[in-house]
Amino acid sequence: MSIVAELMNQPGVLAAGEFAYRGDRFSYRGQLDEEQARMLSIVCRATTMTAHMETQLLNNVSTATGLTGVRGWLLRGPGHTLCVYANTFCLFNTHAGSPNRIVRLLTAALADDAMDLI
Amino acid sequence: MATLNQLMALPGAVAAFAFQGDGTLGEHQIAATRLIDPATLALMARMCAANLQIATLQASGWDQQPGTELKGFLPVQDFTLIGLEWSVVVDNAHHTAVVLTNDKSDYEAAFAALER
Questions:
Q1: A66 and B75: CB-CB below 8 Å?
Q2: B105 and B14 in contact (C-beta within 8 Å)?
Q3: Over 70: is that where the pLDDT of A117 sits?
Q4: How far apart are CA B22 and CA B42, in angstroms?
């Protein structure tokens, strides 16, 4: 089962998909229309690039931090949470979804994904 | 609001800190200075402030889109950055953050502690 399919099976998940690190390509499943998914993929790419820049800055100051190299991020609101790991995103209901479970699934599936593509 | 002592009691806590809206580092605790030094923590505080602003910008834009699927992010509660070995969980309401090792990280416990 693909990671996107696994995510869609989790409680509270509204949509999941993948985005390209370069360019505007994306794919998704769930409760988004094409335009929403496109907007989301742009945000995922831009924020991941920003996080990559930030961890590089930290690495320049101290090579000892465990933040060197970004793997993902979560944006949590009262209604929805967006989780991004490598080039995969997952949108879920903040109260019905489990961030711990979703991050564990993503880590297990994508931890070995090449980071030099970012 | 959780105290820094309470945040440092979270599994895998490396550091906990408060910061101002402009990213200036405030009170902080570090589990061991060999893990992270105050200068790096100060840069991390700026990063946290910046990410909260970016997240709020994104959420504000989505909130004005038709449909409900991309609403529900305002007000932003937390932004978490997951690095190779550590994660930083940042609370927007109180401008506090905790750094956790990924192998022990319990994000849900961190959210609950930060939002207390």
A1: no
A2: no
A3: no
A4: 11
